[in-house]
Amino acid sequence: MRDKYKIGTSTPLSANGEHNRTIGILSLGCPRNLVDSENILGRLSLKGYSFVDIDKADIALVNTCAFIEEAKTESIAAILDLIDLKRKGKIKKIVVYGCLTQRYKDKLQKELPEVDAFVGKISLNHSLKAWRLTPKHYAYVKICEGCINNCSYCIIPKIKGKFASLDIDSILTKIKRFDKNKVSEVNIIGQDITGYGLDLYASARLPELLKNIIKKTKNIGWIRLLYLYPSRINDKLLELIKDEPRICKYIDLPLQHINDRILRLMRRNTTKKDILRLIDKIRKKIPNAVIRTSLIVGFPSETDKEFRELLDFIEEVRFERLGAFIYSREEGTMAYSLKGQIPAQMKRERFNTLMLQQQRISEGVNKKFLKAAIDVLIDEPSSCAQGLGEKEEGSYLGRSQYDAPEVDGLVYVDSKKTLKPGDFVRVEITDTLEYDLVGKV
Ligand code: SF4
């Protein structure tokens, strides 16, 4: 059974004892989906449902992803696993949520009659009692749904519909609750958070929202911004990131490519010149910031020369954090009908070439941290740190402000003092790896 974010208790905990029907959930895909899953559980707990392991539940929920082929395959496989459990009488009902339903409801209903319900879009309004699926010390807050952009390869605008920002007060209510519960790190997410407010307030309000969050909270140590759209990053936002110690010096900047012809075909509303100017500005304004980006290789008609240009670009910029995707031809997107679709083998080769180059760059970037002292957020005790530190010292896994949960590197921490998830500690870096760091408190 896939173990991506699911509830893990064996005894049913009844919220108000009305009935003891139990729910189990599997949340696939991105952190935005995770927030939806937390809201679903929040609402269900108010209705008296209790939560157990998904393979022991009366009602099994799966929140699916349909962004690219790989994600669709994973979602379908998860549903088939649940159908298998239902046939064995282990679970009674299956409810499929999320993007796969949003995209293929009619087809799924025909092909998977064992599924009891397909539920599409989940509203943005935060449940008053969202049920957390992340570890208690960090949380995701989704501030907007849908996307204001229309990249030619992306199906999300069609799945998620019109861009919608959540009002500032509702967001602050949720964040103040996290602050009261001493959550150490809050990750602000959306498809493109730089567009926050453009619909609701007719102007971009991310800096104003962040100032409110900073003013109205005191326990949250780190505020991390995920999914910043390059052409909407302005000086006001960069100044705030630079000046506010609690905002992570972590610039998550999905760029997708650097060649102008490809950027135009991708409908990214930006150019190579703009991107280089923006990166230069970030490096100058916030010298200790790390830049994370994501790139697509094998976009239709991408030539060897254009791919070379992409490799030269990452060599020049030396991104501290980088994720790459192999272009996935998605029906319903503009790029689906573009000429010059690249053969799968060549896409794979380009992906491997790029990631190997980035591995070398990341190793070099990490070396800069040797002997440095950095703040680390402890995530959990580590059982695999043996050999990286003396056994008698407690070993922990943590992250620096430069590492987002689930996607970036780790810091292996040795400490004589007992630490717990959510603790911030000052760590001296004693060794560096390709993506991770090693250190002692
Ligand atoms: S910015 Fe582009 S790639 Fe990202 S969600 Fe929006 S349309 Fe999709």
Keywords:
441 residues; alpha/beta; Rossmann fold; pyruvate-formate lyase- activating enzyme; OB fold (Dihydrolipoamide Acetyltransferase, E2P); 3 domains; five-stranded mixed barrel; 18 strands; 33% helix; 21% strand; binds iron/sulfur cluster
Number of strands: 18
Q: Which cofactors or ions or other ligands sit in this model?
A: iron/sulfur cluster
Query: So how many helices?
Result: 11
Strand content: 15-25%
Spans of at least 5 consecutive residues with low confidence: 7-15, 385-389
Average pLDDT score: 91
Distance between the termini: 37 Å
Shape: globular
What is the C-level CATH assignment of the largest domain? Answer: Alpha Beta
Q: Write down the secondary-structure element order.
A: EHEEHEHEEEHEHEHEHEHHEHEHEEEEE
Q: Supply the number of structural domains.
A: 3
Q: Biggest sheet: strands, sense, closure?
A: 5 strands, parallel
CATH-level-2 architecture of the largest domain: Alpha-Beta Horseshoe
Tell me the CATH topology of the largest domain. Answer: pyruvate-formate lyase- activating enzyme
Which structural category fits the helices and strands? alpha/beta
Strand arrangement within the widest β-sheet reads 2-1-3-4-5
Fourth-level CATH superfamily of the largest domain: tm_1862 like domain
Radius of gyration: 22 Å
Helical percentage: 25-40%
How is the topology of this model organized?
Elements lengths: L21 E6 L3 H16 L3 E2 L7 E6 L4 H19 L5 E6 H13 L5 E3 L18 E5 L1 E2 L10 H5 L3 E2 L2 H13 L4 E5 L16 H11 L5 E4 L9 H9 L6 E3 L7 H7 L5 H14 L4 E8 L6 H14 L3 E6 L17 H24 L5 E9 L12 E7 L10 E5 L8 E9 L4 E4 L1
Parallel strand pairs: 1-2, 1-3, 3-4, 4-5, 6-9, 9-10, 11-12, 12-13, 16-18
Antiparallel strand pairs: 7-8, 14-15, 14-17, 15-16, 17-18
Helix pairs in contact: 5-6, 10-11
Bound molecules: iron/sulfur cluster.
The site of iron/sulfur cluster has 10 residues, from helix 4.
